[in-house]
Design brief:
It is a single chain. The chain has 441 residues and is of the alpha+beta class. Strands 2-11-8-9 form a four-stranded antiparallel sheet. The chain has a four-stranded mixed sheet with strand order 6-3-10-7, with no helix packed on it. A four-stranded antiparallel sheet has the order 14-19-17-18. The chain is elongated, with a radius of gyration of 29 Å. The relative contact order is 0.13.
Length: 441
């Protein structure tokens, strides 16, 4: 790729020290920041949840860094997710964190924000991913790869202009993301309000769920399964956690058994599935089975109920999603420490269901269908917009590192002079004394 006038191609090790250490005589009684991997916000490039520690507590076994350093997660999946940040606001200017961070300390007149944004590029992360080594799930970017990776280096003044422009654009993108992140909360509130408002009227009755059932609740079956199993497909809990049926690869597995065709375990369209065990926030999650008949069975951690009328089935499903009934399930769940909370068949049978007069059921369900469909569309559009924002950010970053985001200034000192100055400084810099420990590290 041809570079603009005044730019040069540099290796990362030429413009930043990799994994520098705190000096051995650093006061270890002082308070510093401890930064676990989850504390790095991949979009903001910020450390959002620093923990106070004394340096002595975390001197060994952790990566050291300081204010102004760039930290970069080298392990999957954190690297692919863009876990990188510029360290700022550290206690006493110092921190320790996961050994899965690379630390890059920029040389004078190398912008830490410029370097961080380069590492955040989707193209950089994709290319780095091709060079990762190690076992699946624990693959890492090798240090030699990072050190020798090329970086388009503009003059120091242009680095500052690029960072300022990217900062302004990123702030606008961040505000848009924040608004889009609110959509699922707002749409869920829309659904909940529609259920609460529609299901109250004169002449409406409250009955126990069992009064509406033709069968159930009955637990499913969870025989042994495995990656090489070729028997009957069965749903996982994931298949119904969202409130809608999923039958994709992540939500279905096969067992080693072949379930007989006359088994009562086969799911039929219109069956209502309720999770009888899961994390407390998910226990009682329900979905209507909309797949083909006699194709899937369901696991022991789900119950199935059948209601003869299609509209009543949907009416019950809408109410099972309401805050009132989800709270009822949580309040009636049982379990011991270390085990999933569970609800019993008795708890499910006694769920209070509001039923309108028979001549109003179809109308109420149709109105709920419209509201839920609108909420689903809003969520889909928000997710699509979120992807477009991610793509927009990637395009902006790529443009910045091609030299197309801000104009060049012929009066800027060329980056070649900056690079020569860094090299000369390194040649004349005194060599650090190596202790027995550091010589073997």
């Amino acid at each position: 790729m041809s570079l603009p006038n005044g730019w040069v191609e540099a290796e990362i090790r030429e413009i930043a020290a990799i994994n520098p250490k705190h000096p051995a005589d650093t006061d270890r009684s002082q308070n510093v920041s401890f930064v676990p991997m989850p504390a790095v916000d991949e979009h903001l490039g910020a450390i959002v949840d620093k923990i106070g520690k004394t340096l002595g507590e975390i001197w060994t076994g952790y990566t050291h860094f300081a204010d102004g350093d760039v930290i970069f997660a080298k392990i999957t999946p954190c690297m692919e997710n863009g876990k990188a940040a510029v360290a700022k606001g550290l206690a006493n200017g110092l921190a320790c964190g996961s050994t899965e961070f690379f630390v890059l300390r920029p040389e004078t007149d190398i912008s830490a924000d410029y370097l961080w944004r380069f590492l955040r590029q989707e193209s950089f992360r994709e290319e780095a991913g091709k060079h990762m080594t190690g076992a699946v799930g624990q693959r890492r970017v090798p240090r030699p790869y990072l050190e020798s990776h090329g970086l388009p280096l503009p003059p120091a003044a242009e680095q500052r202009r690029i960072v300022a422009k990217l900062g302004a654009l990123s702030a606008r993108i961040a505000r848009a993301r924040a608004e889009l992140d609110r959509v699922p909360m707002l749409t869920e509130k829309m659904r909940q309000c529609s259920v609460e408002q529609l299901l109250h009227g004169e002449g409406w009755n409250t009955v126990s769920l069992e009064a509406l059932l033709s069968s159930g609740p009955t637990n499913g079956w969870s025989p042994k399964s495995g990656p090489d199993a070729k028997g009957t497909p069965t749903l996982k809990l994931t298949a119904t956690t969202s409130g809608y049926l999923r039958t994709d690869e992540a939500a279905v597995k096969r067992i080693y058994e072949d379930v007989p065709s006359d088994s009562s375990l086969w799911l039929e369209p219109g069956d209502l599935l309720i999770q009888r065990a899961n994390a407390l926030e998910h226990v009682g999650a329900s979905a209507i089975f909309t797949g083909p008949r006699k194709t899937f069975i369901y696991p022991d951690l789900m119950m199935r109920v059948r209601i003869p009328d299609r509209n009543l089935t949907k009416l019950v499903w809408y109410q099972l999603r309401s805050p009132t009934i989800r709270r009822y399930f949580r309040d009636n769940a049982t379990g011991t420490a270390g085990n999933m909370p569970k609800i019993s068949g008795t708890t499910v049978r006694k769920v209070p269901i509001i039923v309108p007069p028979a001549n109003r059921v179809e109308e109420v369900v149709a109105r709920l269908d419209q509201t839920f469909a609108r909420a689903d569309r809003l969520e889909t559009e928000a997710a699509r917009a979120r992807k477009l924002l991610d793509r927009l950010e990637a395009v902006i970053l790529a443009k910045a590192f091609r030299g197309g985001l801000v104009p060049q200034d012929p009066n800027d000192e060329p980056a070649s002079a900056l690079l020569e100055r860094i090299r000369a400084k390194r040649v004349t810099a005194p060599k650090a004394k190596r202790t027995r420990r550091s010589a073997s590290s």
